[in-house]
Model the fold of this input.
Amino acid sequence: MTQHAPLSHPAQIAASPATLFARTPNLAEPDTSLLRASLRNYFIETFDRYESLFDCLAEDDAAWVTKPIALRHPLIFYFGHTATFFVNKLMLTRMIDTRIDQHMESIFAVGVDEMSWDDLDDSHYDWPGAARVRAYRNQVRALVLGLIDHAPLQSPIHWQSPWWAIIMGIEHERIHLETSSVLIRQHALRHVRAVAEWAPRPDDGRPAPENTLLPVPAGVVRIGKSFDGPQYGWDNEYGAHEAQVEPFEASRYLVSNHEFLAFVEAGGYRNQRDWTEEGRKWLAYSQAEHPTFWVKKTQGWFLRLMTEEVPMPWSWPVEVNYLEAKAFCNWKAAETGQPVRLPTEDEWYRLYDHTGRTDPGASPCDANLHLDHGASSCPVDEYAHGEFFDVVGNVWQWTETPTYPFDGFDVHPIYDDFTTPTFDGQHNLIKGGSWISCGNEAVRASRYAFRRHFFQHAGLRYVVSHAPAEAPAAYYETDRLLSEYAEFHYGDTYFDVPNFPRTLAQLAIQAMGEHPCRLALDLGCASGRATFELARTFERVTGVDFSARFINQGVQLMQSGQLRYTLTDEGDLVSYKTRTLAELNLRDTLPRVEFFQGDACNLKPQFTGYDLVLAANLIDRLYDPARFLDTIHERIVAGGLLVIASPYTWLEEHTPHSAWIGGIKKDGESWTTLDGLHAHLSPHFTPVGEPLDVPFVIRETRRKFQHTLSQLTLWRRH
Amino acid sequence: MTQHAPLSHPAQIAASPATLFARTPNLAEPDTSLLRASLRNYFIETFDRYESLFDCLAEDDAAWVTKPIALRHPLIFYFGHTATFFVNKLMLTRMIDTRIDQHMESIFAVGVDEMSWDDLDDSHYDWPGAARVRAYRNQVRALVLGLIDHAPLQSPIHWQSPWWAIIMGIEHERIHLETSSVLIRQHALRHVRAVAEWAPRPDDGRPAPENTLLPVPAGVVRIGKSFDGPQYGWDNEYGAHEAQVEPFEASRYLVSNHEFLAFVEAGGYRNQRDWTEEGRKWLAYSQAEHPTFWVKKTQGWFLRLMTEEVPMPWSWPVEVNYLEAKAFCNWKAAETGQPVRLPTEDEWYRLYDHTGRTDPGASPCDANLHLDHGASSCPVDEYAHGEFFDVVGNVWQWTETPTYPFDGFDVHPIYDDFTTPTFDGQHNLIKGGSWISCGNEAVRASRYAFRRHFFQHAGLRYVVSHAPAEAPAAYYETDRLLSEYAEFHYGDTYFDVPNFPRTLAQLAIQAMGEHPCRLALDLGCASGRATFELARTFERVTGVDFSARFINQGVQLMQSGQLRYTLTDEGDLVSYKTRTLAELNLRDTLPRVEFFQGDACNLKPQFTGYDLVLAANLIDRLYDPARFLDTIHERIVAGGLLVIASPYTWLEEHTPHSAWIGGIKKDGESWTTLDGLHAHLSPHFTPVGEPLDVPFVIRETRRKFQHTLSQLTLWRRH
Done:
C-alpha cells in the first residue's frame, strides 16, 4: 500500500512547514506573548488569504454584485461580511463598545440561510464598491490587530472569554474561505479569472482506480469536546457522544467522476426509483441531469473548477449533494443486491479511528487538506490512509446523519444560532474536509452540516452495512406550550417554588403510609415528571395524557434520556435547554415507567388496579369532570389513594359551563369546586387530612410567569 | 293638624301591644334565654303569618301552580321557598350539615329575578302539591325551633355569627310576606278568596284631600349602620353615608288615586312627552292606560285589592311603578312650571328626620305600617307625621335614587347576591314601607330597591326642588381586565410583592434627587395609582392612558374617593371589593392630580414641561414604541427624569412585529429591548444607575396569578 504517492506535478503552494497555512491555534498557550503572536499570525494569514480569494473575480463590478446563484448574496457581501462579523462579536463580548461603520455593519450582517432550493433571496441592496469594502476591511484589520496586541489577555482563552470573539471571527472567515470558493466556482466564467495562487492541480490523466469494499471492524466511537479544551470549537462539537459501531464495509476510495459516470449513463438522473422523495422534488425543481460542476460539451465531459473548465479529470472525486449521493447508493444497492448506503457520522469516526488519523500538525498533511497541496481536488488514489484513501481531505463526504446536539450541548452566548436552526432533521453532516478546509474545518472534532440539496466541494464514500442508519434525536421543542411545560416539569426553580410534580409525588408517596406502593397512575401526566418521580417508589407507574404531544415528551425522555426545548426570553429571543433524566437522578426509574395516550373521562379498561391515582392540574381541563370523578373509584384498589390537585381554573374552552363541578351558583348558593369534589367522591372515598395549597410557577418569558396555587386533596378508597 | 284620625271601622288586627306583629328583635339581648325566646316568637309569628297569607288562595291546585304574572313563579314556589331558604343558609353557616329534602330544596332554591319586563320565565316544573309543601314546611319549622332552643348561642348575634342565618331567614320570609301579597293581588280573582285575617280596610268614602307643598328645611342626613349594631340588617344598610340636603318642598300627602286620575284623564298614558325613554318602552310593551290595580268598569273605576275589587277609594294612595310615578311628576312639572320630581333617598331621610319619626316600637304604629292597622291601604290623610302625612307606611314611596353601596359596604358571606346584582343603576330605592311592611322592612335603616317597572304596594310623594337628583356611584367594575388592574393598583399584596405603582413612584421620587418635583406625567397610568402616589411629592401630576375605561377608574377615585370592583375567586364566583383613597392615605393628593385620555405615541402639545415622566408597563403595549422613545425628550425639562419600567412582553396584538424595539434578531445578532432603549434614548438622555427588576403580581383568580418582573431604567434628560 502506497503511503504517500509522489506528486507528479509541482505543488502550487509549497508543502513546507514554513509556508503551511496556519493551523487552528493552541488557546491554552500559557505564555501570553506567544499566544498573542500566534493569534496575530492566525488572523493575518486568514484575513490575507480570504482577500486573495477575491482576486479570482473579474475586474468589473458585475463580478462583485451579480449573484452566482439565486439563493445567496453576491460576493461583495461575503467580502464585507467576515469583517463585520468581527465587529459584531467583539461588541457582544464587550471587547469594543463602538462600531466602525454602522451602515457597512448593517448591510453585511446577515447572510442568506439557504433553507430550501426555492427560497429565493429577493433582497435588493445598493452594494458599496469593492474598494470601499476593502478600506472597511482595513479598518477592521487594524482594530483586531490592536486588540490582539494590546487588549488584556488571560490564558487560556476559553468559551467564556471575551477573546473567544476573535478566534471565532477567524474561524468564521475560514468557513467563508471555503464557501466563497464554492460560490466563485458557481459564478459565470465571465466573472472569474485565473490567478496563480488559486490555480488548480493539473489532471495527470490517470484512469480512476476500480473501487473495492474493505472491512472496518466494530468498535466504540467517542466524540465531543469539553468546554475547557485548548482549541476553538463551534457549539455543536461540545458535550459527549459515545456509540458502539457495528462492523461494516466501506469503499476504499471516494467515488470518482468515473465511477459516478456509470450512474449518470445508466439514466440515474432520469430514473425516479433511486431517489428519495426529497430527491425527486429537488430533481423536478433543478432539472439536473448530471453533477452540478460537470459540463457537457460536444467534445465530451468537462469539469468546472473555480476559474476554468477542464476536460473531465476522471480520477478525481465526484462532487454532488446528499440527494445525488443517496440516489447513487440506492442505484448501487439495486445493482449489487447489497445494502449500500452513505456512512453515518459514527461510522465515519470509526473509519477515522481505525485508520489512525490525527489532526493536521506542523508537517504538511498526508491528505489533500488545508490548502497544503494546491487549490483543487486530486485523484482519489493519491492519499492513502491505511488501506483506505482520502479518509480526510480532497472533498467532504456526505453522511446519512442529520446533525444533532451531543449530551451537554450548549449554545454559545454570542452566536446562539450557529447550529440550533439546523437541528431540524434536514441538515446532514459532512465529514473529512476538502482541499480548502482549514483550521477548525480540518480537525477530527469539527461537525459541519448543510441542507441535503446544497453544494460544497463534497462527494461521497459508500459503505455496505445491514445496520440501519438511525437519525439521532435533534428535535428542539419550540411549541410554546410544550416548551413551557418541559421547563415546568424538568427546568429551573423560580421564586423559590419547589418543583411541582416532584412535590406532588412526594406528598402522594408520603400519604400512602402502610399501603403497598405497587401500581400508580399519573392521569394528565403532561410532560411526565410526576410519573418518573412516583417510579422512585412504585413498582410500576403509568403516565396517561389526552395529548399525544405531551406524552411524546415522556417517551422521548424514556428513549433518549433527555428533552430539548427552547424557552422564550424576550420577544423572538430564545434560550436553548437540554434536560436529562441522569441529572435529575431519575435514570433508574426507566424500567418502571410507561406512557400512554388516553382520556381521563373515558379510560380504557386496562388502566385499573391502582394503589394510587394522581390527577394533577387535571379536573379543570376535562370536558366532563363529573364523569371522571364518578368513575375513578373503579380503577383504585380498596384502601388506595386518589390525589387531586387543581387551581380550579374553570374555562369554557376546556369545560362547558354546564359541566363545571364547582365555581358556580348552585340552587342559589355559592358552590366551590371543593364542595363539588366532596359531593362526587364521598360515595367511594373518605377525605384524608385538610386541603393544602401547593404552588407552581410556569415560565412564559424571562420576566413573565404564571404563579398559581393548586389545591391538593387526598381521598382514600373505601 | 289631626295627629291620629279615629278609625272609622274596626281594625281587622287589633292594634294592641299584646297582638302586635312582632318587631325585629334586639340581637344584643345579653340574656340568652330571653334572646332565644324572642327569636322563637319572631320565627313562629312570621312562619304562621306567612302560611296564613296562602289561605287567600282558592282551594283548587290551579291557584297554587298558575303564575299570577308571566315573570314570576307560581305561588307554590314562594310557599316552599322561604322554608328552603332557612335550610340553605343554615348549611352555609354550618349550623346544620344535612339537608331535609334534596328535591324540595332544589326546586325551591332560586326565585326569578325580574330583571326586565320581557324576561319571561319559561321554566317548567312538576310542582309538588300544597300539602306536601306544608309537610316540608313543618319539618323546617321543627328544625329551626330545635336550633333556636338548643344550639349553642352567644350574645350578641352579629353579622359573623352562625345564628345570622336564622334571623336572615325570618326577615327574608317577611319580605316574601309582602311580595307574595302583591302576587296574590295580581292573581286572577278566580284563584283567590277572601279571608277574615287579610280583609282590607273598608273605604269610608271620604274625598281625597287637596294636596299642597310644604317646605322641608336644609339639613344633614346620616345613614348607615355599623357591623356590630343590635338589629338585623341587609348588607346594603351597612357602612356610612352623609349628605347635606338642600331645602326643598314636598307634597303634604302621598299622591291619591284622585290626584292621579287627573293625569290619567289628561291623557297621561297616551302622551309620550312626560315619559322617560325607559318609560316609553315600557308603555309600548305593557300597553298600560292607567295604574295596574285600577279596573275600569262600566259603572266606573274600581281598585283591585288582594282578594276583591272594590269601588275606587279615591282618598287612598295611588299605586304605580317608578316609570308611572316619574311621568306623573313630569306632567305635574309641565302643568305647574315648577321643578317637580320624586324625592331622592337623601331627601326622604331628611323628611323623616324633619318630622321626628322613630322605628316601630312596643305600641301600635302611628302609621299604616307593620300590619298594625289592617290589610290594605287607607286614606292619605289618616296618619299625620308633623305637618306631613304617611312619611312612613300606607304605600312605599318611589325615589329618584338607584340603589348604591355606602362607604364600607360589604357583602354578607352567606348571601353575596342579595344586593350586588342591583348595583346597576336600574333598581330604584323605595322608602317608608307599606301597610304590610314588617320587621326590617319597617325601620328607618332599611333600603329596598326594585326595577323601575316593578309593582309593589308602592306610590309616590312628589317634591319641588331645583337641586338635581344625582345618581350616586353604584358601579362595580366587573370587566375582568379592569377589575384585575383595580386590584393590581389598589388591592391586596400577594406573594409578599410590594405594591408596584407605589414602588415605582417611590423609586422615581428618590431618583429625582435635587431636581425640583414640580410637574410629573404618568404615561400609561392605567388605574392611576402611581399618579396619586407621585402627587404625594409633586406639585401637579397628570395621568394619561390610551384607554378611557382605565382613566375612568382614576376619575372615579377623584370624584367619589373610592373604587368598587368584583374579583373572580373561582369560576363564576366573585368577591366584592371597595377601595378608598382615604384608606391609602391619598386623599390629600386630590387637588394635585388630573387624568386625561391620550396616546403616548401622539401626545397632545399641552403635555410638556415635565420634571418626570413615568412610563410603567407601557412600551411593550404601544403600537409604535420607537416614536414614543424618539420624541418623549420634547416633553421633559433639562435635567428631568424619564422612568421606564417594562417586562418587555412583546406581543403582535399590541405592537406589530416590525415595530418591536428589541427582543429581535438585528443584523443577525440578538438585540434586547434594553439595547433598543439605549439606541433610541441616548441622543437625549443619559442612563442613571443600573437596570433594576421590579416585581409585580396581577391576581386572576383566588389561586392564579401573573407574577412578572418589570425592568426599571432611569434616564436623565441632557
Notes: Confidence is low (pLDDT under 50) at residues 1-17, 115-120 of chain A. The longest helix of chain A spans residues 164-186. Chain A touches chain B at residues 88, 91-92, 105-106, 109-111, 416-417, 495, 569-573, 647-650, 660, 662-665, 667-670, 672-673, 693, 697, 701-711 (CB under 8 Å). The two ends of chain A are 81 Å apart (CA to CA).
